[in-house]
Specification:
This protein is of the alpha+beta class and about 350 residues long. The chain has helices spanning about 1-15, 20-30, 35-45, 50-80, 105-115, 130-135, 170-175, 220-235, 285-290, 310-315, 330, and strands at about 120, 130, 155, 160-165, 180-190, 205-215, 240-245, 250-260, 275-285, 300-305. About 35% of the residues lie in helices and about 20% in strands. The strands form two sheets. It has a seven-stranded mixed beta sheet, with helices on both faces. Strands 2-4-3 form a three-stranded antiparallel beta sheet. The mean pLDDT is about 90. The structure holds 3,4-dihydroxyphenylalanine.
Length: about 350
């Protein structure tokens, strides 16, 4: 029996096959139910006990060898087959299905890139926050309506744990830890207790920018805003600032851009005014700087904040805000080629 196994081992290491049918014939000859190796295994019970160990090992070796050999013959033939006449390597390739970036991510990246060109770096903060970072440090009065349950999702009361209602909280987180110069851009998700409709959602996205240094002026803010508007919406874009109020900036303003659909002539989108509002901004209130341990006599700063959904609507005319979170691939696929 041992001799038989050894001769089979030799035989197997010299096997050749010209095509896949021959390989299959070899598999049947050696490894199928009625194959030579299988019948050797059946004879195994007749082997004297003192030889069982040696014979057993040899049979296993033989079986592995045969399987390995047949696999190799098959692989070699299959790889040669790639170049055969049936496969035309000059044929046009099938298109690769591209994934799509979410429109909000596309716009967020674009906003961050524009500010990166002005020297801003990205900073992020937690979505679950405390009262200090979202409200108190930002000069919100004790009875400010934004602190109300109606607007804010509370996870816990006293001490308050809440979902941040704006990305301005990241301003505080950075200023607490860093002395100026500070130049950051903070993208992120925010939450408000709003009834969901085509124009409001209980979560949405914002980008906040903050620049604090010596001699930062309102003119610097205006210049950054103009640059941003032209980069984002095209060089023809005009901006205008309207006085406004935010607790954390003084003076505060809201910025409009000339309607990018009608070029400022007036259309239903801009309600025939020629202008659309896109962000809030202002000079950082000295109280905010002081609350974060920055000397307001030495440093000044500007801040601005915008909704990413709003900017995306303007760029892509998405009428219903809910589409951003419905995961409808028919909607999302439309952004396939956008960066
Ligand atoms: N935090 C404001 C909001 O959620 C947006 C904002 C306005 C941010 C003015 C700012 C700013 O930094 O200066 O509506």
């Amino acid at each position: 029996m041992i001799d038989k196994i050894k001769s089979l081992l030799d035989e197997i290491s010299n096997l050749t096959a010209a095509n896949l049918d021959e390989v299959e014939a070899l598999r049947i000859k050696y490894l199928s139910k009625k194959g030579e190796i299988t019948s050797l295994m059946n004879d195994f019970r007749n082997v004297p006990a003192e030889q069982k160990r040696e014979v057993g090992q040899l049979i296993n070796q033989l079986k592995d060898k045969a399987q390995e050999k047949i696999n190799t013959l098959k692989e070699v033939l299959e790889s040669q087959n790639l170049g055969s006449v049936e496969e035309d390597l000059t044929r046009t390739a099938y298109p690769i299905a591209l994934g799509t970036r979410h429109p909000l991510s596309i716009v967020k990246n674009e906003i961050c890139d524009i500010f990166a060109r002005l020297g801003f770096t990205i900073a992020e903060g937690p979505e679950i926050e405390d009262d200090w970072h979202v409200f108190s440090s930002l000069n919100f009065a004790e009875d400010h309506p934004a602190r109300d349950m109606q607007d804010t999702f509370f996870i816990q009361r006293s001490p308050d744990v809440l979902l941040r209602t704006h990305t301005s909280s990241v301003q505080t987180r950075v200023m607490e830890k860093t002395q100026p110069p500070i130049r950051i851009i903070c993208p992120g998700r925010v939450y408000r207790n709003e009834a969901i409709s085509y124009r409001a959602h209980c979560f949405f996205h914002q980008v906040e920018a903050l620049y604090v240094d010596k001699n930062v002026s309102f003119a610097d803010l205006k210049q950054a805003l103009l640059y941003f508007a032209k980069e984002m919406f095209g060089t023809e874009t005009k901006i205008r600032l309207r006085p406004s109020y935010f607790p954390f900036t003084e003076p505060s303003a809201e910025m409009d851009i000339s309607c990018n659909l009608c070029g400022g002539k007036g259309c239903p989108f801009c309600k025939h005014t020629g202008w659309v509002e896109i962000l809030g901004c202002g000079m950082v209130d000295p109280n905010v700087l002081e609350a974060c341990g920055i000397d307001s006599k030495e440093y000044t700063g500007y801040a601005l904040g915008m909704g990413i959904e709003r900017i995306t609507n303007l760029k892509y005319q998405v009428k219903d805000l809910r589409m951003f979170s419905e995961n409808d691939v028919r909607f999302l696929r439309q952004f396939e080629s956008a960066y």
